[in-house]
Design brief:
This protein has helices at residues 28-40, 44-57, 62-74, 78-91, 96-108, 112-125, 130-142, 146-159, 164-176, 180-193, 198-211, 214-227, 232-244, 248-261, 269-280. By secondary structure, it is mostly helical.
Length: 281
């Protein structure tokens, strides 16, 4: 699918942005390129017009079909997107991208098993694409195939070993599988390669707490709080870790900070109540 986000736009009449060239003189390739430009600008419905004309001119071009499917997918015309992706696959069955894009549409509509089949084909035809493996692994985990999910993320980590994103998701799968030590190792790698990611540090702290290492959790949580000081939940979990090692004053300080930031946060309400009770004594 298109690697872009499209803004909301007002539908207008068809217009040509081909540098003064007459609309009728555009080749199919030029129309497809113009469609890409319009999509980049958020003018998806106008892009669809040009992609459709490119397809009318060269109906056997799988790439044009795929781009039209992408535009339909982003305009939430899923049935039309599926039809174009299937046509693209029929024309060029060994191209990975339309399989992947078809899987994305299926997943969006909750058809996880159909999505898994498409993701598997995408990975088969492009085994070095780590993002395809991540999406396959995530879908596999959701349908209960955790071992196959882990295998795909392990391969993704082997391919892109310095990308913290894949270490993070592999850690998440290890945690689901009950492999806590492996999860900690991968989450550590995620924080090494993405040291400024507050959430990765938060999750590392949670794993340490689960494993019974509150001192290590404190270090991870303190980093998370330093990176994202305005989040009350981060202060609350740091306070929990301080409480676990008997650092009562430090815990009270961060419970209080969390309460002042968002005293109506239901997730932390019990912590805030404990803090209020302690202050009232």
């Amino acid at each position: 699918m298109l690697d872009r986000e499209f803004r909301h736009f007002k539908t207008g009449r068809e217009r040509s942005d081909a540098g003064g060239q007459s609309d009728n003189e555009l080749t199919a390739q030029e129309r497809a390129v113009l469609g890409d430009k319009l999509c980049d600008e958020g003018r998806v419905e106008e892009a669809i017009i040009h992609y459709r004309k490119a397809v009318q001119m060269e109906g056997g071009n799988a790439w044009f079909r795929e781009r039209l499917g992408d535009a339909y997918a982003y305009s939430e015309e899923s049935a039309k997107a599926v039809a174009e992706y299937r046509k693209a696959i029929m024309l060029s069955p060994r191209r990975a991208e339309p399989h992947f894009s078809l899987g994305e549409v299926y997943r969006r509509h909750g058809k996880l098993e159909a999505a898994v089949k498409c993701y598997r084909k995408a990975v088969y035809y492009n085994p070095l694409n780590t993002f395809y493996r991540y999406k396959l692994g995530d879908a596999l985990a959701q349908v209960g195939l955790i071992d196959e999910a882990i295998l795909n993320l392990e391969i993704a980590v082997q391919i892109s070993g310095t990308d913290g994103f894949y270490h993070f998701w592999l850690a998440d799968l290890y945690c689901l599988a009950g492999r806590l030590s492996d999860a900690i190792i991968e989450m550590q790698q995620a924080t090494i390669f993405c040291p400024q990611d507050a959430y990765y540090n938060l999750r590392l702290g949670m794993l340490y707490m689960r494993a019974g290492f509150p001192q290590d959790a404190i270090a991870a949580y303190e980093t998370a709080v330093r990176l994202k000081p305005s989040d009350p939940a981060y202060h609350a979990v740091l306070a929990d870790a301080y409480s676990a090692v008997g650092r009562v004053e430090d815990a009270a300080k961060h419970y209080s900070m969390a309460a002042k930031m968002d005293s109506y946060d239901a997730v932390n309400l019990d912590r805030f109540r404990r803090q209020a009770s302690a202050e009232g004594k």
